[in-house]
């Protein structure tokens, strides 16, 4: 530590009335820092208190739905797992996204980490159109438009899973792919998704069929026609550790899709994508 000339010389002529610029400066600064710490501690605004409060609110157990017949119905509270990362879709309301109005980060847990039915991992399936070509019953069907909302215990406002067109200022923070997030703005086409069957060869035939619980599905964004995805190679660090970034991207296969053979047999038309 370096001392000033006043600190080295000392003497009675330097009184306590002068708080800054004399040998008593360090003592006064320590006192000011202690008062600042006590004030933040009393108001629970310390970084530790903020992080601990977020842990408590994010890891509270919440009810989720059970379907006796194994079908997914409107209004059910569900958990969503990604097939590639083998992780569960989670929310972080303490991680706001820049350049997007009141939006928060969504991630996927790492392989083998199952958070269970917690506030940050349970979503509600809601209907976009009250009446469509598939009817008005309670069953969720392939080809229907859905909204995926956060459960009511996580945040004071209604949050919806949304995605936005990629731009130089709006994109996924790590991979720079199309952004996927939870937003509290008014529901629009950016928060609307369509359920597609995972097999492109029977995707058209499965339109209108009931979605089964635990069955793999694809979530296609209505506004951009890009699927919700995650990649275990794209990590994102937050207060909960190292998790996988969730974004929108069409991961297509490099295998031959046999389009001509399927079209010759009448099992496929040219407007059906077979790469994803």
Compact description:
This protein is 15% helix and 24% strand. The chain has helices at residues 5-9, 25-42, 47-58, 259-265; strands at residues 77-78, 89-96, 103-108, 123-127, 145-150, 160-163, 178-183, 193-197, 217-221, 228-238, 241-248.
Main β-sheet: number of strands, strand sense, barrel status?
6 strands, antiparallel
By CATH, the architecture of the largest domain is named Trefoil
Number of structurally distinct domains: 2
Q: Enumerate the spans where pLDDT stays under 50 for 5 or more consecutive residues.
A: none
Number of strands: 11
SSE topology string:
HHHEEEEEEEEEEEH
Distance between the termini: 64 Å
Secondary-structure-based class equals: alpha+beta
Number of helices: 4
User: Beta-sheet strand percentage?
Assistant: 15-25%
